[in-house]
Write a structure and sequence with these properties.
- The protein is α/β, with parallel strands linked by helices.
- The chain is 30% helix and 29% strand.
- It is built from 19 helices and 37 strands.
- The strands form eight sheets. Strands 1, 2, 3, 4, 5, 6, 8, 9, 11 and 12 form a ten-stranded mixed beta sheet that branches. The chain has an eight-stranded parallel beta sheet with strand order 26-35-34-33-32-31-30-27. Strands 13-21-20-23-16-14 form a six-stranded mixed beta sheet.
- α10 packs parallel to α11.
């Protein structure tokens, strides 16, 4: 009897400690896991990584904090904003014998979850076995949103936050007065334990918890509606009876779910002009008056007057999707246009306007002239609408200057693939990326930013020198490069990753980031670094690869003057290797001044793209080669590029995805908000964002200007008056356009804004007509 009384009193005491808000009779235990200073959800008991079990508390970890770490992500709701990461540890709770139901909230809103499945044992019974997951399991989780379409019912809580914390539930039998749960590789946010007999009552309690979590989010976060122009739409009865309106804005203009067309935008005709070998986008949008089911867009073959056919396979029809995205400022979000995706058919919900992109490619052997055909818009439940498509094929090709038209994006394979690749699958994925880059005008592949193009080396510490250097990874990338073919630049950018990238600290960066920790002496570091670069250069020459430009200094200003000096030291040392050419991407005027004269190529960041800086880079770099660094819009890639005689562009990032690529609310988004991403990964390869089309059109703007200049030169070479007059008129147009472009790029960013769709279309038309005249 005395034993029973003691045991009852102990259980009563533990229930008060575990869950003060719950009476002893209910015996529902609720734990909130996170670091000491993170908030505790109402009614829960805090458990940090340092909460070690004791008889006094009756709960806790089996030993000290080694193997556990607490994190507070500091947003959304107090229950799952924080967690304890458990590498391997056991959680104990003193509870009465009997059958219990355990509920675990496991997940994280930061970066990628591990590629290893977490493991759980309860009372020595395996609940979930740890181990490496396969790619399908992983992609089904991280790419689950890639195939869905935005709905008015969507909300960030359900889609992006709560869904990341899957509640795991299992039964367990306690026979010795203590529940033991072993965790391996687990991110644990919360735990609720209750007797099986109280399941109904406890589930009501959990429902209230979830409701309160959601309230915390919804009361602190707000949706920002886009500014939409007031519409003057006034439909005729016949148009209303269709149940939807087809309209046209400039393809660069944003279309939101709430967009309503103007009367002037109602569309039954699309016109587009293309040079031979050019891609050109054109768009239309659908404003639904009712729910439209299984909408298909069908493009028929186009024909010219002679009956010659332009194949429909050259028209790529895509749909722009929407994503709910967290905004940079405050606790705000907005539904924004996102990736341009392939589709077969789509439901279009009333109140959700949809934008479609037709990306038209004109093969080089296409005969010039006008081709016409129809676009059929076919909802399953409403009448079909026909849109006339007219394509004018121009009688010329756009010209390239191999030495001048160099366009590069920092290539960084999405981390989602790092642990799942073998050599064959990596090359397949890389091939998809290279084909994609070519389609969107990128002429310079970049290597060295992801680990699959790093050299592998060993070091002989006894002799103080490299023992071996394995360059097979680089050779593998170049095999894919050759198979894909068609890159027009004579260069490959090789980024000496980890040695000088961004630059926060001198010694850790050069010795720890990529395995240099054992190189204790300064001269050992330089000797090893230079030898690796020398061998890469030697292999490039031997295999007749395009010339490698070693990007060895990038944004050194981030580390202050000391690190800029170190960048200069790096560039000087690498250039001691015969034939090695180096590049620096500069962030500040001081960095520009210190690194330009020791760089073959120098990039000028757009924030310092001013006349004096650009001239200095162009005239003082070793190869007289100035590139625009971080060009991020059509104007910079095109008219500004041509005006300032740039020879290339380099931009971060082709793909910079660390968290869920379709979840703008994971904490990885904090970093990503600072970068412009141009693609999103899927299990099948990259999909473009609108920025891809904008930069490609900018590249083509520069090529149109270059093509016009070359035609003017040719006309000037003819003695007849007609050629001379056309050359003069062409030069007058070039001069007029040049005068329109301010050499200070910040003027557009800070003062007047960049040009709109109509301005670009007008200039493109004027240039094309002048080239046509000169081509006769």
């Amino acid at each position: 009897m005395l034993f029973f009384i003691k045991k009852f009193c102990f259980i009563f005491f533990c229930s008060l400690v575990f869950c003060p808000a719950i009476s002893a009779a209910e015996t529902i235990y609720k734990f909130d896991f996170g670091p000491d200073k993170s908030p505790v959800f109402e009614g829960f008991t805090a458990v940090s990584e340092e909460t070690v079990y004791s008889r006094q508390t009756g709960f806790g970890w089996d030993y000290g904090s080694e193997g556990r770490q607490g994190f507070d992500r500091e947003r959304y709701d107090n229950l799952c904003r924080d967690l304890v990461y458990v590498k391997s540890s056991s959680f104990k709770a003193d509870i009465a014998d009997g059958k219990y139901i355990v509920n675990l909230w496991i997940g994280d809103l930061y970066d990628l979850a591990d590629y290893l499945r977490f493991g759980i044992k309860a009372e020595r019974r395996v609940i979930l076995r740890a181990g490496k997951i396969d790619f399908k399991t992983y992609s089904d989780f991280y790419f689950q949103s890639s195939n869905r379409y935005y709905s008015r019912k969507d909300n960030p809580w359900d889609l992006y936050i709560d869904s990341r914390f899957i509640r795991r539930q299992f039964n367990v039998m306690v026979n010795d007065g203590q529940l033991n749960i072993d965790f391996e590789n687990c991110r644990l946010s919360a735990m609720v334990i209750y007797p099986a007999r109280l399941a109904g009552e406890a589930e009501k309690e959990i429902s209230i918890i979830n409701t309160n979590r959601r309230k915390q989010f919804e009361t602190s976060w707000s949706e920002i509606k886009p500014r939409i122009e007031a519409s003057d739409l006034n439909l005729e009865p016949a148009d209303s009876n269709h149940g939807y309106v087809v309209f046209k804005k400039g393809w660069m203009e944003k279309v939101y779910p709430q967009t309503v067309p103007q009367n002037r935008e109602i569309c039954r005709q699309l016109n587009v002009s293309c040079a031979k070998g050019e891609y050109e986008p054109v768009s239309f949008s659908i404003y639904p008056l009712v729910d439209l089911k299984n909408v298909r867009i069908m493009v028929e073959h186009l024909f010219n007057e002679a009956g010659e056919k332009f194949e429909t396979q050259n028209v790529d029809v895509r749909l722009q999707k929407y994503r709910i995205a967290r905004l940079n400022s405050g606790k705000n979000y907005q539904v924004l246009p996102s990736e341009i995706a392939n589709f077969y058919e789509v439901d279009i919900e009333r109140g959700v306007t949809r934008k479609f992109i037709l990306d038209i490619y004109v093969p080089k052997d296409t005969k010039e002239g006008v081709y016409e055909g129809n676009i059929w818009i076919r909802p399953e439940n409403r009448p079909t609408i026909k849109i006339r498509l007219t394509l004018r094929v121009l009688p010329f090709e756009l010209l390239w200057d191999r030495e001048r038209h160099n366009y590069a994006l920092q290539y960084f394979m999405a981390r989602h693939y790092w642990d799942f690749r073998d050599e064959a699958s990596y090359k397949d994925y890389l091939k998809c990326d290279f084909v994609f880059m070519k389609r969107f005008g990128i002429t310079v592949p970049t290597l060295g930013y992801d680990p699959f193009s790093w050299p592998v080396f060993s070091y002989d510490s006894g002799r103080g020198r490299l023992a071996s250097v394995d360059l097979s990874a680089i050779a593998g990338v170049m095999d894919v490069y050759k198979k894909v073919g068609g890159f027009t630049s004579p260069y490959i950018i090789y980024c000496t990753y980890g040695l000088t990238l961004h630059g926060n600290y001198k010694l850790p960066l050069r010795r720890n980031s990529v395995g240099w920790a054992y190189l204790e002496q300064e001269n050992e570091f330089w000797a090893a670094y230079k030898e690796i670069v020398r061998q890469i250069k030697q292999k490039q020459v031997k295999n007749d690869w395009p010339e490698f430009i070693f990007l060895a200094a990038a944004e050194m200003s981030n580390g202050g003057l000391e690190h800029i000096k170190y960048g200069k030291e790096v560039l000087d040392n690498l250039r001691e290797n015969p034939g090695v050419k180096v590049a620096a991407m500069t962030l500040s005027e001081k960095e520009l001044q210190m690194l330009t004269e020791v760089s073959n190529i120098v990039g000028v960041q757009i924030s310092i793209c001013k006349d004096d800086n650009v001239r200095y880079a162009r005239e003082k770099s070793i190869d007289k080669s100035y590139w625009i660094y971080q060009a991020n819009n059509r104007f910079a890639y095109g008219y500004y590029f041509y005006k300032t005689s740039a020879k290339g562009t380099f931009k971060e990032d082709y793909q910079h995805v660390f968290g869920d690529p379709y979840n703008g609310f994971d904490d990885a988004g904090d970093e990503l908000l600072a970068f412009t991403r141009y693609t999103l990964p899927t299990a099948d390869g990259p999909v473009p964002l609108m920025e891809c089309y904008e930069w490609r059109e900018g590249i083509d703007d520069a090529r149109y200007l270059y093509t016009l200049a070359e035609h003017i030169k040719r006309a000037k070479g003819h003695a007849d008056a007609d050629s001379q007059q056309k050359a003069q008129q062409g030069q007058e147009l070039l001069d007029k356009i040049s005068a329109k472009v301010n050499p200070d790029l910040t003027y557009y960013r800070d003062v007047v804004g960049f040009w709109d769709n109509a301005a670009y279309d007008k200039l493109r038309s004027m240039i094309a007509e002048k080239i046509c005249e000169l081509s006769l």
